[in-house]
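Translate structure to sequence.
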């Protein structure tokens, strides 16, 4: 299968940092059923362990602490993954818009009404980076 021009210009290899690769791996793992069952198992073990604790308040603090730490870490990792996904989607939209602007520009030679629309589209490309 022949590769497109855009695919040919793309660099080969993973240029992401070690942290970005870790985030991607963590994102894939926590979004699957086994992670849910692990979390459910932790809660179940915590519930069953009630008779082993002398103080009910300490028993509650234990699960709250674990849950807070895990939640904070997951929030940071998932936000990072979401940001990178959003940036990739925006880049794809920019490429599509640029290609459309080129197509419109080629047609604007015969249709003067397209000139203004083409300029508006070109101005909008990358708009999110300017705000």
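Result:
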């Amino acid at each position: 299968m022949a590769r497109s021009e855009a695919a040919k210009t793309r660099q080969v290899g993973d240029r992401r940092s070690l942290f970005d690769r870790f985030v991607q791996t963590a994102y894939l793992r926590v979004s699957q059923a086994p992670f849910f069952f692990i979390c459910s198992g932790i809660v179940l073990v915590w519930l069953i362990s009630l008779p082993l604790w002398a103080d009910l308040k300490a028993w509650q603090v234990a699960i709250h602490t674990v849950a807070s730490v895990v939640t904070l870490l997951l929030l940071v990792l998932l936000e990072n993954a979401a940001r990178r996904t959003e940036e990739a989607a925006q880049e794809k939209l920019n490429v599509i818009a640029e290609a459309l602007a080129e197509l419109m520009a080629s047609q604007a030679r015969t249709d003067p009404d397209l000139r203004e629309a083409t300029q508006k589209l070109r101005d909008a490309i990358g708009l999110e980076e300017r705000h």
